[in-house]
Amino acid sequence: MVQSKGINFNGQNIYIGIDVHLKSWSVTIITESGYKRTHSQKPSAKELFEHLKKHYPNGKYQAVYESGFSGYSTYYALKEYGIKCMIIHAADVPTSQYENVMKTDAIDSEKLAKSLKGGLLRGIYVRDKEELDDRSLIRLRKTLQKQLGGYKSRVKHLLYNNGISYPDCFENSRSHWSNRFIYWLENEVRLLSSTRLSLDLLIDQVKLFRKNLLKATRMVRDLSKKPQYSRQYENLISIPGIGLVTAMCLLTEIGDVSRFHNQREFASFLGLIPSCHSSGENIYNMEKTFRGNKHLGPLVIESAWVSIRHDRAMSMAYGAYCKRMKGQEAIIRIARKMSNRILSVLKSGKKYQYDKVR
């Protein structure tokens, strides 16, 4: 007991691997000498800190966990107790064949702790708390847009199932979902059944999601006027193809642009770098890598399609690419060029100058 009371890890690094789950944490703790212990506990930063303070007093606590459902909440909870923390992408954790075959929470947390102690991990970028809700707003708007599109498709599918044809005034799909079109759906459409409960419910959902999408868009517009975004927002929309939503999505997803040291790093973050397989003298560039931001990549590609209609340099480059590859492949090259322009604008703080297509 006397020896236990005299334990002091003053100045020593204590490495902590946490396998985070909703109802429990599996925690492996390794000291500098290699002493290792694994335990399971409630998902509580306070409980972990009390355990560390009791068994590893005065140590320099360093923790790591894989990014997942808990987001940044675990990171900030640990930070409040003075525990230095790193969030790691699951695919970046060195894994042996045994660890692949024998997968348990204890093995996963031990793997994290060992990799942290060995200096083998590179954490993901952790953004400021105040930026999190801004990013969530942009992502929620995208979700609302997709859900609205889904309900519109269900309405049309129901019309087709009931053999309903559009009047001549609605032959052009661009006129669909106008107030006049909604009025026609609500007052003139008759289904095969004597009732139309399903159609009325779907129309209500369309109107609800349109209302919420409009509200979200207004919030995004207000967000673009905030001091921390307004200047860079104006610079970004000077690039042909980039509008309100794409610009704000870029700003809220990227955060600190200085973390990108070159154009390739930035393009990789956007998911615009091809995967590569090389063996000996043979080098094969294949499809885009699965890594990269899932929200930004598609937006930049959409913007690239617009840019080739307005930016002369982009239009010429696209034409040259199309001579030796398919249009879908060529537009990825244009998107890569656009990513270079985006990075340049964000780092220079200046608007983009281009030669317009007339």
UniProtKB/TrEMBL annotation:
GO terms for biological process: DNA transposition. One of its GO terms (molecular function) is DNA binding. It comes from the Bacteria. Pfam families: DEDD_Tnp_IS110 (PF01548), Transposase_20 (PF02371). Residues 234-316 form the Transposase IS116/IS110/IS902 C-terminal domain. Residues 16-159 form the Transposase IS110-like N-terminal domain. This is Transposase IS116/IS110/IS902 family protein.
